[in-house]
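Fold it.
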Amino acid sequence: LRAVAAGQVAEVLCAVGAVYYGSRAATGVGRDLRSAIFHHVTGFSAAETARLAGLPVDRIRISAYALSGALAAFAGVVIVGFYGQALATMGNPYLLGSVAAVVVGGASIFGGRGSAYSALLGILVIYSISNGLALLSVSADVRYVVTGAVLLLAVVIDSLSRRSRAAHGRA
């Protein structure tokens, strides 16, 4: 509750999601959810494979979107409870950091690969850089520029590695 009181709703929800994902990954339900969520919701082309394996693809896809909507609604209720109001732009300060964390973690913005564990690693990297700059009393504007530069570097590296794999026939 202390983190929620500090206005870090996104980090709390990410931590809850990571604990849930980690606790369910070893069970049969966790494997079904993991394959369905990360192969269907994210746009991977394994829907027919999952269907042939006996997974209820449509039901799991709808459940994943319903869970996402429920967690977004919960985050909205927490924000309204803390601030007494909610605006559509309240999450904007977290947008650049979250996208940068996922891309730095190894998920390609061009589609096709990524994992929850690598996204968590990206979160650690981006927020460690941001917190280190804050401890050095660097202004928020400079921290945004540094985060943007790290994001740009990750996208360039991903683009070059994708081009190299395509040139060598490993796309």
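DSSP finds eight helices and no strands in the chain.
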